[in-house]
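Lab notebook: predicted structure, single chain.

Context: the supervisor wants predicted structures on file for every construct in the current expression panel, including those that have not yet been purified. This is the next one on the list. No modifications to the sequence; it matches the entry in the shared construct table.
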Amino acid sequence: MPNDWLTQWLRWLGGVPSFQIYGKSCREQSWRIIDVYATPRRNVEAPLPLWAGTCVTWTNELISVGWDFAREVLYEQAEEPASREHPVVVAGGRIRDLARRCAAGATSLATASEILAHECGHTWQAARIGPAYLALVGAVTLFGEGPHSWNRFENEASEHGQFGGLVNGSVSENLAPLLKRRE
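Prediction complete. Output recorded below exactly as produced.
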């Protein structure tokens, strides 16, 4: 219930989402529709120390990203769309582990769509953990992935998250032109 209240309050604050996606964990049967809100405060060059260049899962239904990240996701989806039949997952189950990514035949840098898949893993955690999600996962998320117990939530999000593509007709008017292929 508190998760629903927080989601509704954040939707009220944020207005219309920039776009919606299908997301889930590989442990879930059904896809969920997740709102993605883009803000310039989360752009890579933004001046806010812990916000710049970040993607944050606030609840099981809401992710916040930078405008630059949102544009990159839309460019990638215009080139090679994800679907619920062929979802994007984090290659090798890790965003920053070069050895695991190379062993999986992936590039050393995760794509924006892979990072969004990771965030979908966090939405599953938020659905499972409920109101304690922000305090519990938020307290350790800056540590990132790794071999320690405090890396568990980040590792789990990368291992289980799936991004099933954009919800048709959900892309906001100011981002819709980006769905055309890059020239």
